[in-house]
Design goal:
The protein is an alpha+beta fold. The chain has one domain. It has 2 helices and 6 strands. Strands 3-2-1-6-5-4 form a 6-stranded mixed sheet, with helices on both faces. β5 and β6 form a beta hairpin.
Length: 115
Amino acid sequence: MQDKEEERSLVKVEETLKKGGFTADFRVSEGRLFTINTRDEQTKSYAPNEVVIVDFYRFEGESDPDDMSILYALETADGVRGTISSAYGTYGDSDALDFLKQVEDLGKNLTKGHK
């Protein structure tokens, strides 16, 4: 269970990101990033090369170093901005973390190619 101070911090960061336009919620399945829709919205999916990590935030449990989570702020090629979170380390969502590692690696290659 998350520490209350950590939970407030995560909630605060999510609220700040939503105010900044990161309003979509994402999930990863079968190597693709999907929007989590509400009501009549159409589901969209993205490959790693269609996503950029704008920022990320790590939250560590004070009493247990294995109690960590990470929140990513993402932007897609068609302008959808949102967040995805995962436990980090032992309890992490391996599909999401693998996808985001691919996105990160593609971003590093892109940066190197545009000096």
